[in-house]
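Protocol step 6 of 9: fold each sequence in the batch and record its structure tokens directly after the sequence line. For illustration, a two-sequence batch is reproduced in full.

Sequence one:
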Amino acid sequence: MTERSSAGGFSWQPILHTARLTTGWQLHALAGPSGYEAYLAQLPPVLMPLIWVVWGLLAVLGLAYMGWLAWVGWGDASAVTRRPAEMSLLLLVWLGAAVATFIWFPTPVELHYLLPIYPVPYVAAGVLLAWLWPWLRWRGGAFVVASGAGQLWAVWLLLGFVGQVGTPGGMGRLFLLICMRPKRPKNGWPKPRPPR
């Protein structure tokens, strides 16, 4: 990761954070500096790179397809091509404006600054898969469902790992505190008695 000085300037962080949000790249970092290797040992070695490639390609190709839709349909007056062009342009501006805003930002860019763009790459992947559906049929759907199931499995294992280990420096301690908080009784919390 490239860090930038506090004076500001160009940074690759918004693009890297967009890749992290889209593909789950570096998900293992949530296990903390002392526990990520043990977490990765629980996963098949090919699972996470496969998920990164699949969702990364789907998102990039989907964004390119939406760019093509916006380019081709913008000058057309018919509603058949105009609506997809408008939708595509809106999503491309949504993603592009957020990333462009933080490329020359005066302070270091954190991942949560880009959370508003979270759905855009997945919508782009869905638009691409909808266009490819006549050729892919069940094979493409099965592949996407399998990769999504793999990603959910990796997150489930991460939560289980963090819940058992309570990784210092990761999200483990906070996760354990949230899990250990008292549950609300069915009748609600007891009302405080007035002082005597």
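Sequence two, same batch, same settings:
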Amino acid sequence: MRLAISYILSALALSACTMAIDNCGGTTVSYSDLPQEVQDSIYYWVKHDIVTTFPASFDTTRLTIIDKPHIISFDGPFTLEDRRFGPWTIHQVLTRTSDGKEFVLSHNIPTPVIIRDDTLIVPVDYNILTVWNPSAQFTTYRLR
């Protein structure tokens, strides 16, 4: 019983060190309203892929993975990792590595998340780098 209570108190104390992005008021902007360097970066990744081709197996098929970035940062190094409970992703955590500040994101947030000038820019729709739509919408959050 004491172990359970101490675990709950520890979890509450650690959650106080993070910021839940979903609870902050975001502003919706269109692609054309984003800073030019952000637009250029998104457009670059629309046109380019990270392609990993695995060697041919015993049959004649080849496995190729086409990947896109999950995070684009103009403000220095950030990491984006899943917090899991068993096989389920509970939420994602964006960590600013310079000071260790963590920002909690929804488990199903569209990617890529873009960080510029302490602002988090999140696409409204999924797969924006694969199926390009120039009228794409983004939500911006101020990172404090």
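Proceed to step 7 once all outputs are recorded. Observation for sequence two: The chain has a mean pLDDT of 81.
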